Please model this.
Amino acid sequence: MCCRGRGGLLPARWREGILTGLFVLDSRGEPRGGLAQMLRLQDRLDWVTNERAVALGDGVHPKHRLTRYHDFFVQHIPEGARVLDIGCGVGAVARSIATRVKGSEVVGVDRDDGRLAEARAAENPNNLSFVKTDVCDSLPDGPWQAVVLSNVLEHIEDRVGFLKAILQNAKPERVLIRVPHFERDWKMPMRKELGLNYFSDAEHFIEHRLDELQTELAEAGLRPMVTHTVWGEIWMCCERTESDGQ
Model:
């Protein structure tokens, strides 16, 4: 009788054993090349893992719930604030802020029609709206008490210029930032040393060390008031400095 596992002709433990053996064989020989091959395979496995995670979360990645990074933004936005969420995507963070910060007015902006359509189709409170715009060209009229940049800066090549433009046009009292942390795992510098991709997204220009981010913020005219390094990310609540010319 043929033993069937969930999703294949062989039981799961057999499939895992066969795959592990193939991985071991594929990694033998010169250590540098073998390690590079395993890291490339890990990228493919991570892609599948994230796809399954989103499916489990009915279209929303469970990291929103498990890492609780929404709490960080909510906790550092005062009641009654006007909040601009730049690069809002499907609106998950903007929706949390609008729902949980009393008296807030939240506007999410993005340039992706598909993501904005999904954001607008969700169950949104009356104090939340979404606008299509390329923030490099224009922003909704300020001033804003808070600007949120959640996984945005790493997608920008001229980050200092981008931040300066936000300070000039949006005139926020504080800027809340979340970016991937380069020093989240030993494999990141190892990947860089091997000449492999070490970005978590193909559209990233950088994944910051803490000192790199601090330098860019200082050049733009921002001073971190609160800094957390958690979940392989850097979270910051920043205020404008006197040197920003505002």
